[in-house]
Amino acid sequence: MGRLVATLVLVMCSAACSLARAHVGGLRRGVERANMRGRLLADAAAAGGGGGVVPIYWSQPLYMANLTIGTPPQPASAIIHLAGEFVWTQCAPCRRCFKQDLPLFNRSASSTYRPEPCDSARCESVPAHSCSGDGACGYERKTLYWDWDTFGIGGTDTFAIGTATASLGFGCAMDSNIEQLWGASGVVGLGRTPWSLVGQMNATAFSYCLAPHGAAGKKSALLLGDSAKLAGGKSAATTPLVNTSDDSSDYMIHLEGIKFGDVIIATPPNGSVVLVDTIFGVSFLVDAAFQAIKKAVTVAVGAAPIATPTKPFDLCFPKAAPAAGANSSLPLPDVVLTFQGAAALTVPPSKYMYDAGNGTVCLAMMSSAMLNLTTDLSILGRLHQENIHFLFDLDKETLSFEPADCSSLS
Q1: What are the domain boundaries of the chain?
Q2: Confidence (pTM)
Q3: Under CATH, domain 237-408 is a member of which superfamily?
Q4: Residues pairing with 173 in the sheet
């Protein structure tokens, strides 16, 4: 499974079907379970009102950030996970560890590290909790959208990430069945939970802007608290966040319309809920909408698609097809996604036609039926977020966005 997932990530898809099913199942879990898991990490001290600027960077196939943990500071790196519930890193001693580029965090070498006692109310509220040999609270957690587990202990220590500093509760992972995290030491979650980085720093807003993947030397940016602001031009748009019944960590919005040039793409009668995501690479549309846009793209390209598309894509063309290439004299139209409140997000052909190598370009959108979803759920992947500044206002429960040169914000 891990090898398949890694392959999908590298070609901008980022998850296999069973992984997405597990994720969507998480959207429906009750608030009680979410709160129980959160208590281990929920009450670390905040600093500076939750403000800070965090440079993030593309490291194939995901966006990451550098940080330090402990006193004296020990370097670590982490995948930035928008829906991530909490913060964790690998720690020494480690029984089963995936390879990372930096040394393991050594909690015994940090004078500010404090373990969570195994007999505390918070520890007892964590599912599958246990006591480690030194009396610290043990835990077991799923990571990202994979069927991968991490095992370790909960603790608190000083974190510095960009200009933000805080004492954070985090998971100290010392055993896992993870094959790789592409050099990273762990994950920084930004989810709608009190124990994510955003929650623990008491940030009432945050934003991020992803520079195009593979852009050498160009930094992206994560901005927390007062630092999170849009330029506020005419192109800025705002849409409400979906209030989920299960208090999930995800950020979702309502999709009300899709246009491909002058072609109106049918959406479900009641619209579609869209999960905004930084792990998936491509976007997924409900099947009827995907089939319609697939047909419209084929007509616009004006050439026969490749009989056997490059995996995992569903629609591919030779790069030499009249309208398939980025420098074509017959350019394709933009795709415009309209969210609740008439908030329109424009996706140019350079973002939805992906160079898959071997002389082929593929539609970087796929059917949510591939994920065996039973709900009208679509997913806005990272590729279609590049050079768009996204602002999450947690007080107003809104998502605002506008085009931007993301590399200039860091």
Answers
A1: 39-227, 237-408
A2: 0.86
A3: Acid Proteases (2.40.70.10)
A4: 90, 152
